Fold:
Amino acid sequence: MIHYKNRKDRIYLLTLDTVLASDVVQRLTDDPRMEDFRVVAPPLTGGEITVEDLQNLAQDTIQARVIVLDVRACTLPPLQETYNRVSGFNRADLNETCHSVCIGDGPPKLFHEGADIEVFVPHLAKFRLDYLAGAFFFDPFMHYTSDERMRMGLDFDNPIPQNIPGRLREAFTGQDLSVDRVRRYLRAASSPAERRQKDKARRERKVMQVFKKRISESFHDRRRELYAWLTREGYAIGGETLRLNLYPLFFEDCIADLMWKSKQFVRKHHVRRPGS
Structure:
């Protein structure tokens, strides 16, 4: 496997979902820690993102310090081949000069009555093995049980849902409970610049309270240990080393940490660029 020593201060985002892409790009570009970093994403001005758009980015990821992969059920199948290429290009450097971050949903049985949080273990293990993921963020606003998919009329002809799961609707007001609206609300997109960080922090605390309630209802006997799911460090399930985090809580912190780790690895091991 080839090591790529010419890594740049770049974060690559691969997804077919324009709503998620806009959210990730805006979150990272609004964060002052990222002002010297470039976020590279598929084009967001031409309507839908295509598989070809992402195939065109695959080779360029050899320049990245962090690669964000959308591995949710609604987007992963058509991107599997592209992600395999990205993983192959970068595998020798992952968790050293380059890091991969997965944004995913969970097993369909996650919130079924009697389900245990351990249903996540093979889910996490797959992404740790396939992409050597350094972090996994569970996206609750795009996680649907089989029953929810049927009630919402979701099918694979329209694979990217536009509305949040019904079980989360009580946490938000308004008739338009689209995924886009909720994401914009949580990142305080309409707040004045001088208030945005404060409003964003307050709204993310609300998300924590909503999910503390969900955890208590679904995993009552283990609720206190599972509250770690809502922390910056995330939750370690059983013997799985890839920890479970909740998107978008502490997402920017994770990306900033991984960018720093990449740069520190280069300094510590004196990885030189060609010709230097």
